[in-house]
Amino acid sequence: MRFVTALAMGVGLVVGLLPGAAHAAPKATVATVVDVEPLAAHSCDPGDFCAYEVVNFTFSLYAWAGNDSNWSNNFTASGISINNNDSSWRNRSNPCVGCDAVRVFDNTNYGAPVTVCLTRGQSLASWGPANNRGSSHSWYGGC
Ligand SMILES: [Ca+2]
Ligand SMILES: [Ca+2]
Questions:
Q1: Is residue 12 predicted with pLDDT exceeding 80?
Q2: Å from CA of 1 to ligand 1 middle
Q3: Which residues are in the CB-under-5-Å shell of ion ligand 1?
């Protein structure tokens, strides 16, 4: 009985040390579009499009409310440019007719190809073909 109690406490402790784990937990390492809120500790403000340096919305992010034709001058809290360094993405746009889906481009000045596109509310924890390729982004009416 004592062992069982200790085990139960241990489980509780582990869960307590991982806030957000109960409601984030991406289940796959490949292209997984999820509509749940990822880790609150790495929040992306409402209205913004956010690109993260690491998969699963971990480590530093860069957030934009509008378009950006060149990511080279956008540095995250860790001090590096997000240009060609994006590994997970969130679209927290407010409802906007014709402008709440975001497309990320491989090249600056919205130059093709599109590496990833997210409609409003979508998050992408990882996506190999788009990994570390984003160089600009803009808002559209759909993907
Ligand atoms: Ca820029
Ligand atoms: Ca690129």
A1: no
A2: 60
A3: 68, 70, 73-74
